[in-house]
Amino acid sequence: MNCRSEVLEVSVEGRQVDEAMLALVHTILLHRSTGKFHYKKEGTYSIGTVGTQDIDCDFIDFSFVRVSSDELDRVIRKAVGEFKDAMGNGTDGMGQISLEFYQKKKSRWPFSDECIPWEVWSIKVNVVNLANEQERQICREKVGEKLGEKVINIVEVINRHEYLPKMPTQSEVDNVFDTSLKDVQPYLYKITFQITDTLGTSVSTTMRRLIKDTLAL
Amino acid sequence: MAAHFDTEYQRLEASYSDSPPGEENLLVHIPDGNKSPWHHIENLDLFFQRVYNLHQKNGFTCMLLGEVFELVQLLFVVGFTVFLANCVDYDILFANKFVNHTDSSKVTLPDAFLPVDVCSARIRDNVAVMFVLVISGVFWLHRLIKFIYNVCCYWEIRSFYTNALKMSMGELPYFTWQEVQARIVEIQKEHQICIHKKELTELDIYHRILRFKNYMVAMVNKSLLPVRFCPPLLGEMVFYTRGLKYNFELIFFWGPGSLFKSEWSLKPEYKRGGNRLELAEKLASRILWIGIANLLLCPVILVWQILYAFFSYTEVIKREPGSLGARCWSLYGRCYLRHFNELDHELMSRLSKGYKASSKYMNCFLSPLLTVVAKNVAFFAGSLLAVLIALTIYDEDVLAVEHVLSSITLLGVCITICRSFIPDKHLVYCPEQLLRVILAHIHYMPDHWQGNAHRYETRDQFSQLFQYKAVFILEELISPVVTPFILIFSLRRKSLEIIDFFRNFTVEVVGVGDTCSFAQMDVRQHGHPAWMSEGKTEASIYQQAEDGKTELSLMHFAITNPQWNPPTETTQFISQLKERVQREATGDVHAHTHTLTSLSESEPRSLIANFLAGPPSLASLHLGRDGSLTNQGPVGISDGASGLRSLSINSMRGSYSSTHRSAGHTSSASRAMVGSSTDARTASSGSSAWEGQLTSLVLSEYASTEMSMHALYIHELHKQQSRGELSRHTWHRQDSDDSGDSVTEEGAAGGRGPDPRHPIPRSHTFPVSTPTSIPSSNSGPPPDRGATPGQEEAPPNSQRRHWGNADSVGSDGRGVRLARVPMGGWAEEGQGGRHPDTVPEEGSDDDMPPNIHKVT
Asked: What spans are recorded as compositionally biased (Acidic residues) (chain B) (predicted)?
């Protein structure tokens, strides 16, 4: 519960899925990334620079700004690609990508480290089938407009003064930021996806809860 | 794909390198680090629960020690019992068999012990003993693991107390929960425990700790849970045990496939009204499976239960055998009497205050027949005992005669039992007043008890709340056998209602998650017109909390948490009520000066005066202590005041008793009481929270008195109000059992004649099996059921309010929709503001205009 959640909803045509997803995920990550931290001796640090890059979409009348880091782009493209594959091609369908920002909390020995999410973005996609080229043309513009609105939404949400993890010291930087990339340092994030709303939680989570509950006082 | 479209925003190659040039000129930041580990806690529900538990258990060391001893005790009891059963040669002890010693003729204790190998062989051969041993071994291991896990978890909470809250474990027992809570609210600003809000409120913390309990209270309040049964021969009874409660919670809240996704959110599909029938079916089959699992596990649970009862109660019974005859508040009673948002310790202290009066009340009803018999049995037994004792005193060799000692003991026990059936000679029979005093503490009571306190039915129903300890233990013991049948045959039938309940009464509160909407204590949403919220409430009958639960809970919460800032409307309600109570209490009792416009004609006059001065003067309850019986005649009123005073911890205002006894200074006494209590509270709520121990303790004691006043006032008002509209309650019953048939209650005041069929207003939660109160009898609504078009506007609400589809289809297949409540799905994002008066989604009632009078 202790985590903000934002929901974005778009409906697009089959071939637009990955571009739309990329646009939204990249927009969020643009605002949730910093330059690399360079720690110095007295517990201070300086922040490296981050470049940005305009990307034009092929199937949508839309261009977006992303962090110019190929590594990050690759990771996200991979996730989005998997999502698209899972959606199947061309058919109607619903799906949801969640981009979850979390921080790690070290625990003592008997417990493993906890990953505590603090913000979750759920992007719901509704894939529609279009009959002819004219409709496609209209869709192209419509989706572009819609995505523009969503980007503004995202920026509005991010501009609110709300909880963000505090800037860590050198030893803790891995608990807050993803430091695996060379040129940029986003907050720790996780991308998961889900096709249609499959009911029920998995067996393992239920079991875990059952055990936890019997153990609880 | 987009790589070629690089625009003029090119990256500076230089910034790419690890250490940028001109490093010394760059902006340098200082990390604030995570100095406290207490920001952003993942599971706040659990966290607050643990904080609360640790406080209730008086700190870490006490808890640890207590649990260690419990483990040891358990081991000891099992071991000792098995040893006694298997390893002792009783023939030697009873001297039926002789041991041949070489040196001395004395039999020693070790002689009676069997050798180890014989002993272990006996244990191994005995299947039953082995079974018990295995089960208790599992039980013990479970406790051990739980203990270790708890130690780890609570160690963290302990460091939260010491580091973040700055309370050492040593002084924790001397802090009240309100103080702890205030500090939590304080540190939220600094640590951001909860990330949704800058500031936590008291209500948030309560909501999190009591999330599921509030649901249970609401379900009991709306008679949703099958806890009332009418077995043949036994009459109506309540069966609600810990096992049953555990199963309910397993089904609703946390078990596999429960309605809740996590501790704080209901699964989204249950929030939508669309496929309620499917979901109900799913729930029904789950209940069936859990019931069957219960049935299969029955023997194990039974043995466990017996062992548990044995281990926990034998010691108590040995210590004070009378405790079995004593009474305790039943589990159902605790649910029925609990306010929304009332923590365990608050409830327990309230009930404990009412304990004495309650047992006195129950003792009023000793059967005269039994008394006569008991008196005579006691007489004969007493004379025998006297002779035996006299003989023994004359010559103690009498004791050596076989069975003399045992008959003396038996006779003694017999006399003790008989004495419990003989009423106290000095007891005054005044059930009505006793019930008043009880009400002042327990705050809830069905309407039909008032004025019927002397009847046996009332007593029987009260005993459902306040049962014999022995009955409690017995019920716990048979619970494993009965529970599966209740689940399979009773609860399963209610699955649709349950689904509807969770959909209709769940709201999502930012920073708290899904909570029971009743727990918001919003008079507007869930107020009951017959309980002070006339004109303020917009709730349909289905949405009203019964027995004035919303109103009383609200008062209780506001009084116990003076720092809490309720929403404006609620503040209005509270201050209005407080003002009224205060005015009633302080105003001149005899002069009926109700010139104030706000007190209309229909307003009951001097309610406080009524219960202060009324024929049953409260004081006589406390006559033993006060001795005020002597001047009861002329100054009944001041007696009343002193009686009321003794509702609080009597020593606190002991000084008043002498000064105000003599003359009719009621007004001053009661004014002093109400006034000072409120004064003290407002004074300290205005000042900073930490004025020391005393203030907060004094505060909480005043608070309970103040709450008692308010409870009595509200009940009195309700009584006077409901005289005109006796028939309401029977309708309730029907409607809420239909779960969803909703009639607006706006016209409650207008022309509701008494229903000739039901002369006594029956409260909802104490239905007596009259024909119309049978669930789902569905005989159709009463003819004058007024459906008004009052509900056209959805109440503007800051939270997302999830209206369910509150229609119901009668068992005969017709839609019995009367008035429409705004309905709609759960949080359809894209749809924006949904007008409540749009066409409902379900096809079945589309053709039914909203304001149909369905007359059968």
From this structure: 839-848
* Maximum C-alpha span of chain A: 65
CA contacts within 13 A on the Cβ side of B317: 11
Over the stretch B327-361, which tens digit does the pLDDT of each residue have?
889 999 999 999 999 999 999 999 999 998 998 88
Interfacial B residues in 163-202 facing A (CB < 8 Å): 192, 194-196
Instruction: Kindly determine whether residue A217 and residue B50, on different chains, have CB atoms separated by under 8 Å.
Output: yes
Estimate the crossing angle of helix B177-191 against helix B693-722, to 10 degrees: 110
Q: Which two tokens stand for residue A48?
A: 């490296």
Q: Which of A58, A162, A206 sits opposite B256 (nearest CB)?
A: A206
Among all residues of chain A, which has the CA nearest to that of B267? A200
**Residue B285 CB partners (closer than 8 Å, separation 6+):** none
Q: Kindly list the residues from chain B whose CB atom is less than 8 angstroms away from the CB atom of residue A146.
A: none
Other beta carbons within 10 Å of B218: 23
A 90-129 near B (Cβ less than 8 A): 103, 105, 108, 110-111, 114, 116, 118
The Cα B733–Cα A131 span in angstroms is: 56
What CA–CA distance (Å, rounded) separates A117 from A35?
22
Q: Residue B360: what are its φ and ψ, rounded to 5°?
A: -60, -45
Residue recorded with tokens 């690089």:
B6
What is d(CA B269, CA B826) in angstroms, rounded to the nearest whole number?
A: 9
User: Is B788 in a helix, a strand, or coil?
Assistant: coil
Tell me whether B22 touches chain A (CB under 8 Å). no
pLDDT band at B288 (very low <50, low <70, confident <90, very high): very high
| Helix (H), strand (E) at residue B586 | helix B568-586
- Residue pointed to by tokens 């009639």: B743
Helix (H, G, I), strand (E, B) or coil at B341: coil
Q: Cβ contact (<8 Å) for A51 and B41?
A: no
HSE (CB half, 13 Å, CA atoms) of B171? 11
pLDDT score of A216 more than 60 = no
- Predicted ipTM of the assembly: 0.79
pLDDT of residue B513: 86
The angle at the Cα of B391, spanning B385 to B394, to the nearest 5 degrees, equals 140
d(CA B804, CA B246): 27
